[in-house]
Amino acid sequence: MRVTASAVSLNVDDVEASASFLTRHFGFKEAMSAEGFVSLARPDVGFNVCYLRTGLKSLKPESLKHRRAEGLIVAFVVEDIDAEYARIQAEGVKVVTPIETEPWGERYFQVADANGVLIQLVQWMHAPDAAPGSTGPEA
Prior knowledge:
Blueprint: E1 7-12, H1 15-26, E2 29-34, E3 37-41, E4 48-53, E5 73-77, H2 81-90, E6 95-101, E7 106-112, E8 118-124
Parallel strand pairs: 1-4, 5-8
Antiparallel strand pairs: 2-3, 3-4, 6-7, 7-8
InterPro entries: Glyas_Bleomycin-R_OHBP_Dase, Glyas_Fos-R_dOase_dom, VOC_core
Protein name: Glyoxalase
Pfam families: Glyoxalase (PF00903)
């Protein structure tokens, strides 16, 4: 198998609100769109973020038609988490999880768009296996 592209698709009530949030605060650009759908891209991310309007007739399987993008996190690894945190605060974005550092070296914070989709920015402060006595996140 040869994968030529990748994307994550999220069901939301307001496609425009989520798309606008990623465009305005995270530099994504619209790659394509149709009624109830938008695909956003950044050349440095490696995958597109797609938003599908909840209940969209063409959404398959039928059992997912009215489910929303809940309980997941879209994470982006960045080079300077503190600078990104300051930038996001200066832009007036509500931070839902303030910046913190986990014992395994993950320094991160989280924001949510108007549909509640969590966006997490992460910087690895040291390799996960370099943390003394750490085996990573607890399940």
